[in-house]
Amino acid sequence: MSLVLGQRKVQVIGGSYLVNLPRPWVLTHGLKQGDPVLIELQPDDSLKISCVSSIQAKSQEAGV
């Protein structure tokens, strides 16, 4: 199941392509400027964005 959090426009700043993250998602994960996120290319050519701290916490819970 997926939840659509709105449409975003691609911006170009200094030769880099940027997309803003949805504010509710950022606040839910307690992210702040400079925090890393993981971007994965999926088999269907979509992108998956994950909070790195959430991934690390799940790994620690699993004992990895």
Account of the protein in words:
- This protein has 2 helices and 4 strands, in the order ββαββα.
- It has 64 residues and is α+β, with helices and mostly antiparallel strands.
- The chain has a domain of 41 residues: Pemi-like Protein 1, Chain: D.
- The protein has a two-stranded antiparallel ribbon with strand order 1-2. The protein has a two-stranded antiparallel sheet with strand order 3-4.
- The longest helix has 10 residues.
- It is globular.
Blueprint (SSEs and pairs):
Elements: E1 11-13, E2 16-18, H1 23-28, E3 37-41, E4 47-51, H2 52-61
Antiparallel strand pairs: 1-2, 3-4
Low-confidence stretches: none
Structural class: alpha+beta
Strand content: 25-35%
Helical segment count: 2
Helix content: 25-40%
What coarse outline follows from CA principal-axis ratios?
globular
Taking the alpha carbons of the first and last residues, their distance comes to: 27 Å
Nearest-angstrom radius of gyration? Answer: 14 Å
**CATH topology description of the domain at 21-61:** Pemi-like Protein 1, Chain: D
The overall average pLDDT, rounded, is 86
In N-to-C order, the SSE pattern is EEHEEH
Work out the number of β strands: 4
Biggest sheet: strands, sense, closure? 2 strands, antiparallel
Oligomer: single chain
